[in-house]
Specification:
Layout: H1 8-22, H2 24-31, H3 37-58, H4 67-92, H5 97-104, H6 107-118, H7 126-143, H8 155-174, H9 183-205, H10 215-249, H11 251-266
Length: 270
């Protein structure tokens, strides 16, 4: 079934989430200064899981019991949280935030292509394709074409961020299968499943017992958990429920813009 034409409230939700997620680049940068990528991800997921469990309980919702639903939740947890959170944090340890923003801009193209292949109500057409390509070109112009000269340096880190963008594109399609489920309970389940996936990597690679965590990194992880992960996940499901995956995919043209604005306002970046 198709969706109604987006209204002002839909765009306001999309812009609000873009503003929140746009600030994540600089927050992650602070977090990974003293906390490795996987452990940063575990920290934000544990906080988000605790908050969302309380929210679900307050709403009178319980975690899903259906194996089928948990299967979809696990896929969404992998592609929507565990992998991209860790990949972005690892990439952001080295690469420039402007280049990271360009790499994240491939998410709408990925989403539209996957939606065309995997859904019956969001087929690719010339208008959508042209819009995606023009949007990506505009993003590069806005951030600065000079950032492209750094393509090829720190190749693995760049591939990590681009892979994270592709993960988000896949998750936008996977999450459609969770529409209609209790939003707060599903969000909590996602965080729990994601946490279980990333903890082994944190213990295996990060030697967490030896870390000396700065107060700035500690605070950054708390903000990532509360705002960018817990609240952001609730908004994500609200938007996809209302307008679908292709509409939601536009967020990755907005996120880099807000990322630049936050950087200029808070970090005095140019």
């Amino acid at each position: 079934m198709g969706h109604k034409q987006p209204g002002a409230s839909d765009y306001m939700l999309l812009i609000a989430l873009a503003a929140i997620w746009g600030s994540s680049f600089m927050i992650i940068k602070v977090a990974v200064d003293t906390v490795p990528a996987a452990t940063t991800t575990v920290g934000r997921l544990v906080i988000a899981a605790a908050v969302l469990l309380l929210v679900a309980r307050h709403a009178g919702q319980s975690l899903p019991r259906s194996p089928r639903v948990w299967g979809v939740v696990s896929a969404a947890a992998l592609f929507g949280c565990a992998l991209p959170f860790t990949l972005i944090a690892w990439g952001e340890e080295k690469i420039d935030s402007g280049l990271a923003a360009i790499l994240m801009g491939v998410m709408p193209l990925t989403t539209v292509l996957l939606a065309h292949l995997m859904t019956s109500d969001e087929k690719l057409n010339a208008r959508k394709g042209a819009g995606i390509l023009f949007g990506l070109a505009g993003l590069i112009i806005l951030i600065g074409p000079e950032k492209l000269i750094y393509l090829g340096e720190d190749t693995l880190r760049q591939l990590a961020v681009a892979s994270a963008a592709a993960c988000y594109g896949a998750n936008a399609i996977i999450s459609k299968s969770l529409v209609g489920q209790p939003r707060q309970a599903i969000s909590a389940a996602l965080m729990l499943a994601s946490t279980a996936m990333v903890i082994p990597a944190s213990l295996l690679f990060d030697r967490v017992w030896e870390l000396e965590v700065s107060s700035a990194s500690f605070l950054a992880i708390i903000v990532l958990g509360l705002l960018h992960t817990a609240y952001g996940t609730l908004l994500l499901f609200t938007i996809i429920d209302r307008q679908g995956a292709s509409f939601f995919s536009q967020i990755n043209f907005l996120v880099p813009v807000f990322g630049l604005l936050w950087g200029m306002a808070i970090l005095a970046e140019r």
